Amino acid sequence: MPLLLGHRGARRAAPENTLAAFDLALQHGCQGFEFDVRCTQDRRAIICHDPELLGLSLEQSSYSSLVEKLRAAEQRPPSARRTDHQLVPCLEDVVDRYSSSVFLDIELKVPGMEEAVLQILRRPSFIGRSHDSFVVSSFLPQVLRRLRELNPEIPLGWICDDRELLPQWRGLPCQVLVAHFSLSGKELIEAAHSAGKKLFVWTLKREEEMRRFAGLGADAIVSDDTELLGRVLRPRR
């Protein structure tokens, strides 16, 4: 059976890229989740897909200013307010929270934070993790090449949703090809496996798609609908 991964967590049922969304994806039966990492002005590796949050540019804002704006927007009494890492988690929060039994697909959205990310992955809570329990992925080939220069052993994944760019996967320093489902099929899965790489498929939304790619031998299926994914493909005990 393929790995079952939530796309930005259980984003159909909880705010994406939050600890609540990650926890819910696991409750739905996923073995892990994909999430996005960007960099703030003060070099914090923040979990966020978009370059802006509540109108603030991440790269031009400090982590504390983002937390302050989010807290100001919260419509909760002080006694019920969430902690900083519940409002907007950082990579170290995720690394420290989830055990090695949870698969982490750490997507870097921007270049220039490779050293900082590798430093976080040296935290005591992450040391000793099997290379089969995580991957650092990106759409950006320069990010993967820089990571490989800094650490020749870390598992890397290249994300692609462009058919014209797809042939580049053979020359990139990655162990995983994360391909959009519109580009994927039996031929690509077999080619990746023949090259000694894994094939992750994203983002599947329908039951028939999930069953089809599981039958074709995809190594992981990434979905927004984690409840459906868990119901369809969760291993029965």
Structure description:
The chain is an alpha/beta fold. The chain is built from nine helices and eleven strands. An eight-stranded parallel β-barrel has the order 1-2-6-7-8-9-10-11, surrounded by five helices. Helix 8 (207-216) links the parallel strand 10 (198-202) and strand 11. Helix 8 (207-216) crosses helix 9. The two termini are 13 Å apart. The relative contact order is 0.16.
How do the strands and helices of this protein lay out in sequence?
Layout: E1 3-7, H1 19-27, E2 32-39, E3 45-47, E4 52-53, E5 56-57, H2 63-73, H3 84-87, H4 91-97, E6 103-108, H5 114-120, E7 134-138, H6 141-150, E8 156-160, E9 176-180, H7 186-194, E10 198-202, H8 207-216, E11 220-223, H9 226-233
Parallel strand pairs: 1-2, 1-11, 2-6, 6-7, 7-8, 8-9, 9-10, 10-11
Antiparallel strand pairs: 2-3, 4-5
Please outline what is shown here.
With 237 residues, this protein is of the alpha/beta class. The protein contains nine helices and eleven strands.
In the sheet with the most strands, the strands line up as 1-2-6-7-8-9-10-11
Beta-strand segment tally: 11
Distance from first to last alpha carbon: 13 Å
Report the major sheet. 8 strands, parallel, barrel
What is the number of helices?
Answer: 9
Mean pLDDT: 95
